[in-house]
Amino acid sequence: MLHFVIARTEACLNLRMFMSLPHSSPLSANDGHVATVLRSPKLFIRETLAGVITALALIPEVISFSVVAGVDPKVSLVASVVLCLALSVFGGRPAMVTAAAGSVALVIGPMVAQHGVQYILPAVILAGIIQILFGVMGMARLMRFIPHAVMTGFVNALGVLIFFAQVPHFWTKSPLIVGLFVLTLLIVMWVPRFIKSVPSPLIAIVLLTLFTVTSGQILPTVGDEGSMSGGLPGLTQLLVPLNLHTLSIIWPCALSIAFVGLMESLLTAKLVDELTATPSSKRRESIGLGVANIMSGFYGGIAGCAMIGQTIVNVEMGKGRSRISTIAAGLVLLVLVTALSEVMAKIPMAVLAGIMAIVAFKTFNWHSIHPGTVASAPVAETLVMLITVAATVSTGNLAIGVLGGLVVMAILPARIKRKQPVKEEKSSPDPEK
């Protein structure tokens, strides 16, 4: 299966589809090209290890999102395998991780609660078709018009949401849980100074899981979050008739899935473009997301979109730069869900919370709240950024936050959308006055 996926991936690539490390990385730009990675054992190992830690970082969020969507955790995990592998081949942004995401779960949840899980499949299929049409018509280009302030607010809100989602897993009176969390932070931050060949999050997960298992400590683990039974489900069966009544139930949910998923995926792609200074195909990403969601609907049962936290894990912490990293993530997650489900269930949640807390810190744009940046930026940009963050965090819905930021930017007077040169006038008075 791995050889098939790799061969198919190479066939879909061209020379423009590579990524380079941001800033002053010693690796070359060609490191992101799949053919280059396959010819280099060192790069292949790096990409594979990035996929391993990405798969482990996916587990707690995907399980928690399944609760929001009202489906069994196994459904979301299997759907994430399908989405991750499909977008590795069909997506337009190499190294971007796609899985069953919280924003989509928030949209599906109310429909499931009111009408039942049997309506998920037709809703996901319709959403996938809408996303494909969105890409075919070239409407993904509209994402370039999203203001920088909204983009910054989107990123900052995600950092806040990711962090607070981890708080229940380490904020406790148990010294052992707090100790594991702190020890995870120290390992992830300090080990890279001495060991560069193996990702530090993977080292933290292996060492601390072995410690808790061998010492007999009873702690909250991944297995406590949901059923971790092995094996794979069959194809999802269509249990509702395809008629106007079904359409009246699913179309609001399908539209929301389509546009929320597209918005989060394309914004994440744009963020990775900026982080790596490399382009991506938004049109291909839109079409690929639609195809992947339809596939996930038939074999998995729930839709998804890009996950910025796990993408940061892959790109920043794992140094993944090609489609090999996301293929590895999908395959590792598949093995964990099936053959190694009992091993995965023993990973302490405090350890994964520590890794995701660092992801949240790296996701947040600290430069945007620096006093110097705030003082030099137009008032409108700061205001829009804060409103985007506040709307997203208060509702837990990224789409509402982004739309709120866009609306505020549109209605603000033009005079506060530009920096008023008050200081310049005072320091350089007009001699004619």
In brief:
With 433 residues, the protein is mainly alpha-helical.
Structure write-up:
This protein is mostly helical. It is built from 19 helices and two strands. Helix 3 (41-69) runs antiparallel to helix 12 (308-317), helix 5 (102-115) runs antiparallel to helix 10 and helix 10 (244-276) crosses helix 11 (282-298). It is globular and about 60 Å long.
Q: What fraction, in percent, of the residue positions are helical?
A: 55-70%
Tally of separate helices: 19
* Integer-rounded radius of gyration: 22 Å
Strands in their spatial order, largest beta sheet: 1-2
Structural class: mainly alpha
Q: State the low-pLDDT regions, or none.
A: 1-30, 422-433
Q: What is the residue-averaged pLDDT?
A: 82
The largest sheet, given as strand count, sense and whether it forms a barrel, is: 2 strands, antiparallel
Distance between the termini: 78 Å
Tell me, what's the shape? globular
Structure summary, number of beta strands = 2
Please provide the ordered H/E string of secondary-structure elements: HHHHEHHHHHHHEHHHHHHHH
Strand fraction = under 5%
Give the secondary structure arrangement, pairings included.
Layout (H helix, E strand, L loop, with lengths): L1 H11 L21 H6 L1 H29 L3 H18 L7 E2 L2 H14 L4 H17 L11 H23 L4 H16 L9 H16 L28 H33 L5 H17 L6 E2 L1 H10 L5 H15 L3 H4 L4 H15 L7 H6 L2 H17 L2 H14 L10 H6 L6
Antiparallel strand pairs: 1-2
Characteristic terms for this protein:
433 residues; mainly alpha; two-stranded antiparallel ribbon; disordered N terminus
